[in-house]
Amino acid sequence: MILNKKFNSDYIFYLVILIFSISVNQYYGLFAVNPLDNFTIYHSGNLILNGQKPFEDYWVTTGLTLDIIQYLFFKFLGTSWSSYVLHASFINTLYCLLIYIVLRSFKLQKFYCLFYSILSAILFYPVVGTPFVDHHSIFFSVSSILIFFLAIKKEHNQIYWFFIPILMFLGFLSKQTPSTYVLIIVFFSSLFYSINNKKFKILFIYILSSITILILFLILLKINKINFINFYTQYISFPSTIGSERAGVDGFLKPFSFSRYFIKFKYIHLVSIPIIISMITLCKEKSSFLKSKDFLIMLNVLLLSYIIIIHQLLTLNSKFNYFIIPLIASFSHIFITKYNIKFSKHFLKYILFIVVISSTYYGYKYVHNRGFLVINDLYNKDKIFKTNIIDKSNLKFNWLTHYNINPEKEVEILEKTANLLKKIDNNSKEKYLLITDYQFIFHKYDLKNAITINKLYGSGISYPSNDNKYFKSYRDFFIKKLKKFNISNIYFIIPSFFNEQDKSLKGIFDKNCKKKSQKLNLIKINIDDCLK
Predict the structure, then answer these.
(1) Are residues 333 and 444 in the same domain?
(2) Residue 215 belongs to some domain of the structure
(3) Residue-level pLDDT at 251
(4) Is 427 inside a domain boundary?
(5) 345 and 410 inside one domain
(6) From CA 325, how far away is CA 434, in angstroms rounded?
(7) N or C terminus: which one in the chain shows less Cβ crowding within 10 Å?
(8) Which of 324, 350, 371 is the last residue of a domain?
């Protein structure tokens, strides 16, 4: 009877987390967009739904996992903004349920497990609201670490070890970083654990799992007739040059300063302090603690927090790494109380105070006020414009971007421009290339003759700039597609975050052969003389 009550109460908390995690993201997914980021997976999911193949039909440098998942959501739920946001809500829910389950395995009180899970639900996906490569990569990466914790705690159940490489692989196919950093940490932690405890079967399971997922992936490429060289060039070779540049001597990690690495991320460091104190105290008391499971878990939690910080510094995104604060705080809570560290009661109050203050601040600034999507100076809730422009379901979306200080005017011009392009599309069967940050237009306006060559347009980021060593491969890919569809005209809908109307064709053609014209926000580039 007692056991049943325990299970029932846990199921109730699961239900609370499920409802809350979905609801909060579905709500904020209808407020504000960054066109460059928020419409990308919406378009790529539809591309696969319409029979297009990544790496073969369009250039892809990141987010394959998201594209495939979004394709499945659209296939079974229909193409709409609601089903698009539901994809992100689904991942938000899995993340928070996993946190609850893992914290419960550490015997943390259910109320606190729920508390940290709910805060995570607010801070994780609602900041962006729609599927986003960084968040998916982080989800799979953090999940692999949490499953690693379960694996070493529940030694009798070795299935956990099998899932870790799969999660890391899915994280890598979401975005190469931070999944690669986490992969290195989890691998060496697993290696240390297996050698230290003479559990070499773990390594065999790792190898079996890794081979299985790689074979399945190669079969997937083969079935869809996707050339492995195309995948390798677009997803591994070219992106590695971006990482090298950002982490290099003059890269994004410079300058090294206390304010940049510590003050800027102060709340992450503050909730990590109890873990550091616990590790030092316990190692002083007993040197053998260095070989314990808890030391390995503490070390992984700290390394995860530093990886998230480094990843934030290496990206061009607004600040989003604060989502990790409740998770780090929960492990500080667990270990400071488990080992009854000196002043543990005071430390607990300190942890709860920091996590509440930081979650409230970041939740209001970056989630409620959409600070991740819209520059704070441009956010004005009184200017939010309700529109049904995004999809065919007549859904009312709260439009606000940092592309225009007047959202109503932005939508008005965008609708006129899209209708102009729709008229061109209807009046001719000639294929044309469309380049725009507003990629939902392809599907809302049924642009049947518009083709896509890049999943996303951002020179030097989503495709090689003309000084990159892989530019020739990209240029050949680009021109091959133009010739395949006999393209005469390239259209740009502006504004573009990276001003792609000025950059995307740089170096593609050998001569000054382009003819330019513009009406409304639609720029037309005729390239008849370029492909002769």
Answers:
(1) no
(2) no
(3) 56
(4) yes
(5) no
(6) 41
(7) N
(8) 371
Among 185, 206, 184, CA closest to 194: 206
- DSSP annotation of 513 reads -
pLDDT on residue 3: 47
Of 314, 347, 371, the one marking the end of a domain is 371
Tell me the one-letter amino acid at 40: T
- Check residue 247 and give its pLDDT: 55
Q: How far apart are CA 90 and CA 331, in angstroms?
A: 24
According to DSSP, the residues that pair with 54 across neighbouring strands are 58
Show the DSSP H helices in 106-250 as ranges. 110-123, 133-153, 159-172, 176-196, 201-223, 228-231, 238-247
**Which residues make beta-bridge pairs with 20?**
none
* Type of residue numbered 404: N
264 and 362 fall within a common domain: yes
Q: Are residues 407 and 479 in the same domain?
A: yes
Q: What tokens does 318 get?
A: 């607004």
Token pair 């299985």: residue: 212
- Residue 431's contacts (CB-CB under 8 Å, 6 or more residues apart) are 449, 450, 451, 485, 486, 487
Does residue 520 lie in a domain region? yes
432-436 sheet: strands from edge to edge: 450-451, 432-436, 489-493, 522-526, 515-519
Q: Rounded to an integer, what distance in angstroms lies between the CA atom of residue 123 and that of residue 323?
A: 5
Write the pLDDT tens digit of every residue in 20-31. 999 999 999 999
Looking at the structure of the chain, the number of domains it has is: 2
Give every residue of the chain whose pLDDT is below 50, as ranges. Answer: 1-3, 5-6, 249
399: part of which helix (H) or strand (E)? strand 397-399
- Between β-strands 489-493 and 522-526, what pairing exists: parallel, antiparallel or unpaired? antiparallel
The Cα angle at residue 208 between residues 205 and 209, in degrees rounded to 5: 85
pLDDT, residue 162, reads: 96
The tokens for 170 are 């899915």
335 lies in some domain: yes
Q: What is the pLDDT of residue 511?
A: 72
Other beta carbons within 10 angstroms of residue 376's beta carbon come to 12
Are 439 and 493 part of one and the same domain?
A: yes
Is there a single domain that holds both residue 348 and residue 446? no
* Backbone phi, psi, residue 61, to 5°: -115, -10
Tell whether 259 and 366 lie within a shared domain. Answer: yes
133 contacts 63 by C-beta, under 8 angstroms = yes
* pLDDT at residue 249, as a whole number: 43
User: Helix 325-338 and helix 266-285: axis angle, to 10°?
Assistant: 20
Supply angle C-alpha 199, 205, 209, rounded to 5: 160
What residues make up the domain containing 365?
252-371
pLDDT of residue 378: 72
Q: Can you say how many angstroms the Cα of residue 264 is from the centroid of all Cα atoms in its chain?
A: 21
Query: For residues 497 and 513, is the Cβ–Cβ distance under 8 A?
Result: no
Are 357 and 422 in the same domain? no
